[in-house]
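Note to self: keep these together.
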Amino acid sequence: MVRRTNVVLRRIYPIAPRDLEQAGTVSTHVRRELLALGMNPDVVRRASVVCFEGEMNMVLYSQGGRIILLVKEDRVEILFSDHGPGIADIDLASQPGYSTAPDWARELGFGAGLGINNMEKNSDLFKIRSRVGEGTVVRATILVGVPFF
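Structure:
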């Protein structure tokens, strides 16, 4: 028998491309939502890191998209879906220090090449699907009640 967990909270946040003035606001909202639900501070911290890194990648590299926050009884899921160039080599893009950031982003201090790596390190389950010329979908899951080492 498969046990289905109930959705406690569902939020959808649109992400505009290159909107650096708003970049980071979704991760702030996610942090506040999780704290208001009484989530463990470690889960909140990890979800905030995942959300911020994904949000910044979408702002910097995509043509826009959305972030969906799903809070269930046993997990926090954050889904990122964008329209953009896609990722040609996910393994390469996941390596610390690898970046395809444009010059304008680097001049602003972005593009250190740690985004995907930080997202994966702070997730219990992590999956990327991408098609060049179409976009990228990421699912990051943080299990509630599971110790993080």
